[in-house]
Structure formats: C-alpha cells, structure tokens
Amino acid sequence: MKKIYYLLYLATAVLFAACTNEEDDLFDTSSALRADAAIAADTKILTDAANGWVMEYFPEAQQSYGGYNVLLKFGTDGKVTVASELYDNSDVTTSLYSVKQSAGIVLSFDTYNEIFHFFSDPSDPAGVGGNGYGLEGDYDFLILEATAEKVTLKGKKTGGIAILTPMKGDWEEYILALQNAEEEMSFQKMQLEMNGKVIPVSISFRTLTFTYGEEENSVSVVASYIQTPTGYKFYEPVEVDGVTLSGFTFNAEAEVFTANDNSTIKLVPVIPPLNEQFVTGNWYFAYSEISEALQPYFAMAANGSASEGEQILYMYMGLSNDGTYSFSFRSGNYIGSLYYNYTLTEEDEITLTFALSGDNNGIYYYNNCNYNYITSAIGSSAGATYKLTTDNPKAPSFITLTSTTNPARYFTLYPNLIAYPFIK
Fold it and tell me: Beta strands 68-74 and 53-57: pairing type?
C-alpha cells in the first residue's frame, strides 16, 4: 500500500498547487538581467585573453572548402583585431564587434573587416565560390560555451562549429609557421595505407576524399581539415573502412603523414608525372609569360574580342564547363571553349591537337574573332608537342610548355586565375 499512497499523495499535491493563486519564481532574476550577466561574462572571457585567440574557422555549411586559422584580439572598446594565414603574416585589420542577446548570446563581427569577412563576402574575393556566394561563411555566431581555455561558437547561418583557443606566442611567427607548413605539405594526390590496404585519396581545397570498395559499391568519405604547424586536424572524426581518423601529423624527412589515432596508418603523397598534373587541372595563361614568337597570335584574338566591344578576361587550358578538355576563355560576359585532344608521351611531354570543334561560343569566336590564331599558337589540327618544366614537381606554381621543334615557341601557365591584363 505504500506505493499507492505515495502516488495519491503526489496527485493531491499537484491538485493543491494547481489551485494556488500565486506561483513562486524559479529564478531570482529576470530573463533580461540573466542575459545581461551572460553577455558580460562572455565578453570578459573574450577580452581577458591577453594575446587573443586562434579561431578554427570552417566556412560553408558542409565545410566544402576546409578550415582556416584566424587570429582574434577582442578589446574592451568594442574593437577586434584580426589576422589570418591567408594574408601576409604582418597584415592585421581592426573593426567593431559586439556580444548581444539574439535567441541566445551572439558574437557578431559588426563592421566590414577585410580579413575576417573574406570568408563571407559575396563578391567572392577568393575567386572560388562564385560572385554572389563567395565562401559562404558566417559573421554572426552563437556562443555555445565560453571558458578561459576554450570558446565554442556556432555559425548562425551555416550551423558550423568554430573553436577558439588562447593564442600562445607571436602572431607573425605563428602565421608564418602555418604558411610554411602548408607549402611543405602541399600535395595534389595521396594514398592511405591502412590494414594492408591502399586507399586512393583525392584533394580539393582543404578536404581529403577517401574512396574504397569495389567500383559498383565504392564508398567515398570526405574529411575537411585545417592546417596546423605539424599536420592536418579534421573538422570532426571520420570513419574510413571501419577505422576512425581525426587527423594526421607530417614527417618532413620521410615525406609521409601518420594518423593521430594510430601510428601504423600512413597517408603517403603520390606525385603524378608533370604532364598528368597539367591535364588534370586548370592552368591559366599570362600574356606577359607568352614568348614573343606567340604573342602576336594572342593579340589577334584580343583584337577580335575588341571588335565585339569586349576584353578577354581570362584564358586557360583545362576542363570546360561541359567537362571536355579545352582551351577556354571569357570574353566580356561570354565564356567559350575550343576542344583539344592530348597525348601524354614521356613524363614531361605532351602533344596538343585541336579537335576542330568547341561549344557554341567557342566556335563563334573561332570563326568571327580571330581565335583561330590562338589554336594555331597552341596546337593546330596537326598537333604540337611540348616539353614541360616547372619549379616544383610536387606542387608546381607554374608549368612552362616549350615546343620540341621550335624553342622560341613557349608559354607559361599558372594554377590560379590570371585576369586581364594578364601580367604575372
């Protein structure tokens, strides 16, 4: 009977409470005062970090571009000083910030800051996400947790998590260390060696894609990472073929990465032949790096675009919008492609042959705007063979193509967009 009595007693107590005219406050202070106290506490934590914070910032909702290190110093005057590994190590900019109540305590970067808003600027200063989108990062963040050791933020737009930890050491030295590490660890292709298996790994921006299994049932796992002075740290752990991975540490002497979770798991760089690197990427022309023997051909095409009231804004060799290997260009508001076939001979040679076709815009400019001169310069339907050279086969910052039959005919292309007036 004791159990029944307890339940009856509880029911009676609930009924009595329901009939009471007054309710006791569950909190000693109003919600507004509690919010003000939380804002003050979080602001104090942010401003108390004498040397500022390192922010692990992953823009875009799916972390498609990987993560980037941003240094932040919050002042008691409402100003924040910002530096980033994507800028020169001595560059800093200052703007306004606020900590306020907005469906939670929110840290906002209120006024435009060239370095911080690089990740959210819709004008796309990175030239990656497209005009109107950019890297689709946040500038308003919910403060999920704030202590002197760590601040956890959540982007209000993307829902992505950003972690702040106290910055130790000199800002300029830290950024330089990150930039040197990225250059040293810059590879275009790798493979994961794990449990007796070799798993191909492709790289795009700061993401690694692990692909394994039989072709018809293959699985691809994407890991977004941020560069550290010693390796890669994943946005969150991923499971690859039953094994959890959270990041890798780089051994510069052996040129190999070791998994942070298991020292027997290796991420091994694979350096493709230079001609393979050339045909698997987009490589941009710089008019200033075209030989005197070939410059007149490109000048004829520039004149042809001018006859349409346009300028050539960029030119590259690589995949066109429809996925065909091409010479592609933008003239004014029009993008066009002229298709090419290629043959890889020795590791550092390639034969380029104009396929006598292209997309609609490409054919128009070929027939009406002197772009047939460019195909003659690069390689007509008879083909042209080139020797390829570069500064660093592991991670080329340029590739120079020199004709094997006439060394006076050469041009140098770059992996990053070279825009009008094509001066490198």
Answer: antiparallel
Question: How far is 175 from 167, CA to CA, in rounded Å?
Answer: 11
Contact at 8 Å (CB) between 194 and 265? Answer: yes
- Determine how many CB atoms are found less than 10 A away from the CB of residue 34: 13
Token pair listed for 341: 């076939």
Give 275's Cβ-side CA count (13 Å radius): 16
| Residue 404 CB neighbours (<10 A) | 15
Burial of 11 (0-12, 13-18, 19+ CB in 10 A): exposed
For residue 261, CA distances in Å to 181, 207, 244, 248, 371 come to: 21, 18, 8, 8, 55
Q: Which two tokens stand for residue 286?
A: 């710089």
Does the structure show a pLDDT above 60 at 10? no
- DSSP for 66-122? -BEEEEEEE-TTSEEEEEETTS-TT--EEEEEEEEESSSEEEEE-S--TTGGGGT-T
For 124-143, the pLDDT digits (tens) are 887 777 778 888 999 999 99
Residues across the chain: 424
Q: Where is 314: in which H helix or E strand? A: strand 312-319
Instruction: Specify the residue for token string 């942070």.
Output: 260
CA nearest neighbour of 212 among 222, 198, 225 = 198
What is the spatial distance between Cα 396 and Cα 190, in angstroms, rounded to a whole number? 16
Q: Could you give the dihedral angle defined by the CA atoms of residues 340, 344, 348 and 351, in that order, rounded to the nearest 10 degrees? A: -40
CA–CA separation, 135 and 138 (whole Å): 9
Give 3-state DSSP helix, strand, coil % of the chain, rounded to 5.
20, 40, 40
Which sign does the torsion angle of CA 392, 398, 402, 408 carry?
A: negative
Mind listing the pLDDT tens digit for each residue in 220-270? 999 999 999 999 999 999 999 999 999 999 999 999 999 999 999 999 999
Which stretches within 155-246 are classed as H helix? 171-184
Stated pTM of the model: 0.69
Print the SS3 string covering 361-424. HHHHHHHHCCHHHHHHHHCCCCCEEEEEEECCCCCCCCEEEEECCCCCCEEEEECCCCCCCCCC
> Residue 271: what pLDDT?
87
The whole-angstrom separation of Cα 108 and Cα 98 is 5
Interatomic CA distance for residues 34 and 52, integer angstroms: 26
